[in-house]
Amino acid sequence: MDEDQIEGCVSGYLKEKGFTRQKGEELQRTNNNTDSSLQPDTVNRTQLERGFARYHDGYGKLRSWAYRSLDLYKPELLRVLYPVFIHCFMDLVAKGYLHEARTFFNSFREDHETKHLRDLQKLEGVLSPTHLEEMEFAHSLRQSKFILKICGHSYELLMQHLHSTQSTTIIGIINEHINFQVTTGQPSSISDDPEAVTLSGSIQDAANLINQKEMLWGLLDDLEDRIEKAGALLSDTEKGLGEAKAGEHDESKKRLVDGGKQGGSIKKVKKDKAGNATGKSAKPEANSISAPPCVKPELPLPIGSTELDLSILEDLRNRVQLSSVSLPSVNFYTFTSTHSSLNCSSISHDGSLVAGGFSDSSLKVWDMAKLEQPTSSFSQGWNDTSQNEQILGRNGRKRQYTLFQGHSGPVYATTFSPFGDFILSSSADKTIRLWSTKLNTNLVCYQGHNYPVWDVQFSPAGHFFASSSHDRTARIWSMDRIQPLRIMAGHLSDVDCVQWHANCNYIATGSSDKTVRLWDVQSGECVRVFIGHRSMILSLAMSPDGRYMASGDEDGTIMMWDLSSGCCVTPLIGHTSCVWTLGFSCEGSLLASGSADCTVKFWDVTTGTKVPRNEEKSGNTNRLRSLKNLPTKSTPVYSLQFSRRNLLFAAGALA
What we know:
The chain is built from 16 helices and 35 strands. By secondary structure, it is α+β, with helices and mostly antiparallel strands.
């Protein structure tokens, strides 16, 4: 509509109301005089103050009402505040109210620092409208929607409050950026339920598209053949030893028969393990769980020696079956007098070697068999310049450990090979080093990352290993090549941890962008994206059958994921600080977690994914039970390692 048409409509309206042309001209002159009397700065300032007041007052009323609500509904109503808060702030920035946006941000940020500190630190850097487009985190928030799980009663109360206050600004933000998932029944009593607040939009749509790709999560098909061969050799060995004994022929024959039966039972148990990693654990729903499929390795895996296979088989014979009523024994190694310089620790699969990475760029390895006194307390010592295994500590006693020097920066991660003959270390100097525990020397220095390397992990079969770095990439390496074989790029922030799948065909990476990704090692493509954490992911663990994955974050939340569907099975809530390490028992019936809150927790992962009726009515989403909490005196748990006999080893530095 042009100006002439607008003027005609206005004149017609004035005539209908009894205004003459002379009165209309006088009214127009009066209006022009009034407009000319107002300065432009005054008009802009008034509009700015009104715009800022709409956001500040609207959010303030919503916040006060939510905190004054009944305790029954308060946990669900408080979930609405954070999405409204960040979108009010970003709207003010987008409209150019920069000073007012900063005032609004500082006025209410304390309400959300406990759960969303890292998000607030990122948004604090938004200083202009262009930053909203350039910053990936802010841009993704603007393009996505929050999905809030809320019961019907809480939803009705919220709608009544919004209509009573007539706050059009807050109503517009909620309509545009929040989708409510209204549930029946009583409101949830868990204030920090990870499943209650999720993001949808471009990020979630992209993740759903990736999660449709084919993913083979089964075990290797040659595992059964190797175990059968080793079992036959072990049976023949026992038979030969029985026949070599002289005298007591009847007992010898009995021993031979028992040995043959035992060898056969070993093969059967091992076959069951290859078919179903839960083995013979006593769980009622074991029969309903299908056996994992057999897959072929995509990497040329090394062939283990017969002696190693026999050693593994011997461990399997002596393995303790764990369950919710039969928890493992824990052997805890405590580092003392580290002076806050211990960054990481790792334990070999049989618990015979313990390694520690330190801020002075050194790597130290303790051999349990060489310790003068069998104690689980280690002292770093003062003189680290010598490479002798026996070094005088602060109290004058000899400390037996091997000192590995070569890095030029703090050591952030260490990992033993499956058989303990090699150890890898990653450092802030952007390198990864391979050490021999038999020769006590550095063999290879791998260079390729552009920034500090946060984590490194050997594959379950050895020879290949994966690393993750501050450069937002993960890389696949082999021991015989100094250049990476694959580079996995896709995370939006640091890749903090990495873990191999049981069949060596995939690796999982956890990042500061709050996502976990699963990568195909052959193609380098991302085949799964797991979204649900609220803070950076610090630890990962794969179930022995390759069906599930556990991830722990900085807030203390552990999430169980189904690899085939890419969905969260359940969150595990119990820790109060960072979850630094996770580990599944050998048959997959238990999950152990170690945290900075100085505790080791055991979780029952055989209860299945179906929510019991009593828990569903109570709103409890913690479907996998916490079996036991083992507190240390004052030692954060750095690493956990289940041995092949299901003994749990743990390590940490005395605070």
